[in-house]
Amino acid sequence: MCGRFSLNLNGAQIRRIPGYDENIREWIDENAFVPRYNIAPRTHAPVILCRKEASETSSTPDTSLILHTMKWGLVPHWSKFEDKSLSTTNARAENLVEGGGMWGSIKGKKRCAIPVQGYYEWLSKGRDKLPHFTKRKDGHLMILAGLYDSVVLEGRTLWTFTIVTTGANKDFSWLHDRQPVILSSRESLEKWLDTSSRTWTPELTELVKPYQYSSVLEWRVLFVMLQASYYAHMNCSYQVPKEVGKVGTESPSFIKPIAGRKDGIQAMFSRQRATKEKVPSTIPAVKRKRSPSPSPAKIEKSTGVQLTPKKPKRELESNEYNQAHKVSSYGIRFKLRLSRRIRT
Prior knowledge:
By secondary structure, this protein is an alpha+beta fold. Helix content is 28%, strand content 26%. The chain contains 8 helices and 13 strands. Strands 2, 4, 5, 6, 7, 10, 11 and 12 form an 8-stranded mixed beta sheet that branches. It is elongated. Mean pLDDT is 79; it is low at 212-226.
């Protein structure tokens, strides 16, 4: 499926459609489009369509292209009001091929293409959903297949569109089982927008098939293989910030890999590498040289103060013993004298 996409470019960049050799001059309701990184359903975006559809009396339509700003989320022409409960953000390719349903009356004559920088898809990881952004590796616009319709409500004409989805390419099936139909070349774009037959054709069926090998006619096999090669080698998908999941939020970081952010994993590893380059991993041990202690004679000579030499340990112990002996002998003599006085 395709529930969000990005188109934050100015009018001149969108008109050029790089890679498709086009330069669209006319843009209906250009002022109604606001460039955004986070375009959600029920908001306005430009679509590409032929200037004039083939009329019933003429089989030579004007094949020049125009841009028309429309609301995302198709409202059928038979609607009495804008029913927001309808799930018309996407149209499954299988339903277009099988025929019937609400798409039966418009799939042959009201086809359009949606230019985007890329689209968002959410990868399920247990209970967590991680947003990923898929875009072209060369940075050019990606063109998605779509349908459009118009209805008059309360006296005003409302133009709306839907994005056609198909089974995921095998190289990107890890992300989701559905993906938008991508018109990868000018030829596929012209084929999709050519409504001269006003019917659904076998060529269109091949155009909306998943990008994988098909056992059909030789030229169709080649076409599908080229589509598969384009999707695998021209597109890339990477994780982006979770903030994109909130409708109305806008930031250039939404289309940049989360690993490349200043607070991302890649930035953390680059800071660690820079630190290792600045500080060597092993610091050589430096042996400090001890300066010799000055002798007492040198100190006395420099300061003029005479230093008393320390007594040897044995001499100190001998003096302490003599002092203690004197105290004890003095106590004995005092006791003898006192006892003699008492007797007399």
